[in-house]
């Protein structure tokens, strides 16, 4: 089958208009759209029978579907994808929406975590969907690293950043650690760390450990590696996922089966399954991306869509993402500019913090 843009180009004006009106009607009402209602909105005057014939052709192409015994049609996932790629008219950001987002995010006080909590609340409040926010790792240069023994099987790694931010985490160190091996490990790290972010440091460390294996005590080396693994949160490239507005999605439907699917989606989200994939996917193209239903395996069972955009730091590096989750009949034309604007604003606020 040809791709969506080819199919659109091959359609005549009447087929294209019927298709567009069915999808727009579905996105507005959530229900099937019948031929009779289209006779009142078509540009040219045609009979309901003619429109039904066009709908049957569109159904044959896999773009429309007829649910249950209804005479109306709804778009398939392929149809929605084609509409979003070829016919969607993205509106300018509504002034009220902009003001609500600005009012929520305009205050750049507090830490980045509280800012991104407010981002989630603002997005779910403005869109009446659920919001998803991937928070960045703390990427300021490092000033100092320290290991502190807390007993036989517990140690604390303390990280002080150049911007004054301090973090510490408890981890299980390799067996046999002594105060001197801990000092040796910290000295080794601090000699390499200053001026580097944690991500940069990780790459340098691997090279240095390989080159200085004899010189660096094996206990200290193990401590460095296990302590940094704690910081890197291996398998979880992004530090935190914020999901807000879960109840908004659950209120969208009264169908028990749909409720169960959406609950399953949020259970997966809360376990962070496949979350990193979102950011990798957003990196493949600039700006807002739209994933419909099973285009992302996380959403294949829930029948949900995700509108997501990455946000960047002052160096134009993607460090996180914001998005809105909703039913496939999201008002894409309105949601896209909201997500786009929010991502740009978050990037600016985080970049401004770095300059301060």
From TrEMBL:
Q: Which domain of life is it from?
A: Bacteria
Positions of transmembrane segments: none
Family annotation (SUPFAM superfamilies): GAF domain-like, Winged helix' DNA-binding domain
User: Which molecular-function annotations from GO does this UniProt entry contain?
Assistant: DNA binding
Q: Which UniProt keywords apply?
A: Repressor, Stress response, Transcription, Transcription regulation
Where do the Heat-inducible transcription repressor HrcA C-terminal domain residues begin and end? 115-336
Q: Name one GO biological process term.
A: negative regulation of DNA-templated transcription
InterPro entries assigned: GAF-like_dom_sf (IPR029016), HrcA (IPR002571), HrcA_C (IPR021153), WH-like_DNA-bd_sf (IPR036388), WH_DNA-bd_sf (IPR036390), WHTH_transcript_rep_HrcA_IDD (IPR023120)
**Signal peptide from the UniProt entry:** none
Any Pfam family matching the protein: HrcA
Task: Name the job this protein performs.
Answer: Negative regulator of class I heat shock genes (grpE-dnaK-dnaJ and groELS operons). Prevents heat-shock induction of these operons.
Q: Which family does it belong to?
A: Belongs to the HrcA family.
Protein name per its UniProtKB record: Heat-inducible transcription repressor HrcA
| Biological source species | Actibacterium naphthalenivorans
């Amino acid at each position: 089958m040809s791709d969506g843009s080819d199919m659109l180009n091959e359609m005549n004006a009447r087929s294209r208009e019927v298709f567009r009106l069915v999808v727009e009607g579905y996105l507005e009402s959530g229900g099937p759209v019948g031929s009779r209602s289209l006779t009142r909105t078509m540009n040219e005057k045609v009979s309901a029978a003619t429109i039904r014939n066009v709908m049957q052709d569109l159904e044959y192409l896999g773009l429309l579907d007829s649910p249950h015994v209804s005479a109306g049609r709804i778009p398939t996932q392929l149809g929605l994808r084609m509409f979003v790629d070829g016919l969607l008219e993205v509106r300018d950001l509504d002034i009220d929406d902009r003001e609500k987002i600005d009012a929520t995010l305009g205050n750049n006080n507090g830490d980045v975590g509280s800012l991104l909590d407010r981002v989630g609340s603002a997005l779910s409040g403005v869109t009446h969907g659920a919001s998803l926010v991937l928070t960045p790792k703390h990427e300021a240069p490092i000033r100092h690293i320290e290991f502190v023994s807390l007993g036989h099987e517990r140690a604390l790694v303390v990280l002080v950043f150049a911007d004054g931010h301090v973090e510490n985490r408890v981890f299980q160190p390799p067996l046999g650690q002594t105060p001197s091996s801990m000092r040796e490990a910290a000295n080794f790290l601090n000699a390499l760390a200053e001026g580097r972010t944690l991500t940069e440091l990780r790459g340098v460390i691997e090279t240095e450990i390989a080159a200085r294996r004899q010189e660096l005590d094996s206990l200290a080396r193990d401590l460095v590696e296990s302590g940094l693994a704690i910081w890197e949160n291996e398998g979880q490239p992004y530090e935190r996922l914020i999901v807000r507005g879960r109840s908004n999605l659950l209120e969208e439907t009264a169908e028990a089966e749909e409720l169960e699917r959406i609950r399953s989606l949020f259970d997966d989200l809360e376990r962070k399954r496949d979350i990193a994939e979102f950011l990798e996917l957003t990196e493949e193209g600039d700006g807002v991306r739209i994933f419909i239903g099973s285009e992302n395996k996380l959403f294949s069972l829930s029948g949900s869509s995700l509108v997501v955009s990455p946000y960047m730091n002052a160096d134009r590096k993607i460090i996180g993402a914001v998005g809105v989750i909703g039913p496939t009949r999201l008002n894409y034309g309105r949601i896209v500019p909201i997500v786009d604007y929010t991502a740009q604003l978050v990037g600016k606020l985080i970049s401004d913090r770095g300059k301060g």
